[in-house]
Amino acid sequence: MSDPAQDAVQRVIRSQGRAAAGVTRSAFWEIMAISAFMLGVAGEWAFADFGSKGAWGRFALLFMVGCAAWMAGAAIGFLFGVPRFKSDTASPGPLAMTAAEQNVANFTPNTNLEQISDWLTKIIVGATLVQLAPIATNFNQLCILIGSRTKLDGADIFVGGLLIFLFFAGLLWGYLWCSIRIFREMRDLLQQIVAARRA
Fold it and tell me: CA nearest 69: which of 180, 167, 173, 182?
């Protein structure tokens, strides 16, 4: 027969190993996302043409536009990455649960954000597919408007590339951060509740 104390130690070691692996994975994606953002800032700095007058104003304009695109992408990525909770607790799983553990299994945090996320993602996807032509036209006009404020050749093309690059970089970061970090926090919270009930 196995020693219960040794089994408990092994379970702790395995859980710590999984937690460390999760931190490594999330840290990698976060580093990649931050690197993408810094690459966009470096492009803004290079394009601002600091050898001419008004460079700081151009850089500030491009920086704020890039931050807005990043945050818009991150917000949509967050909506797409909101974790979902299982509402079906009828199946007991491979191990029988005590009454206290069943009560914990039936516990679910507030899912209003999950429902809003579901509604908004469907609306965003549907509206985008239906309004592709107007979106493209308005995006082109926005790039020309912002580019004209910099008074540099090719600014509208640069602004378009910058917006697309930082938007999708922010989208990826928001999705991964929400699905990895927030999911882990919610999972750990439920595990702590289970452990407290068992104690």
Answer: 167
Which domain does 82 fall in, by range? Answer: 4-198
Which pTM was predicted? 0.65
Count of domains for the chain:
1
Tokens of 148: 């004209």
Average pLDDT on 138-153 reads 90
Burial of 22 (0-12, 13-18, 19+ CB in 10 A): middle
Q: Is the dihedral of CA 149, 152, 158, 162 positive or negative?
A: negative
Q: Is the dihedral of CA 164, 167, 173, 179 positive or negative?
A: negative
Tell me: pLDDT of 177 over 90: no
- Tens digits of per-residue pLDDT, 59-90? 999 999 999 999 999 888 887 777 665 554 44
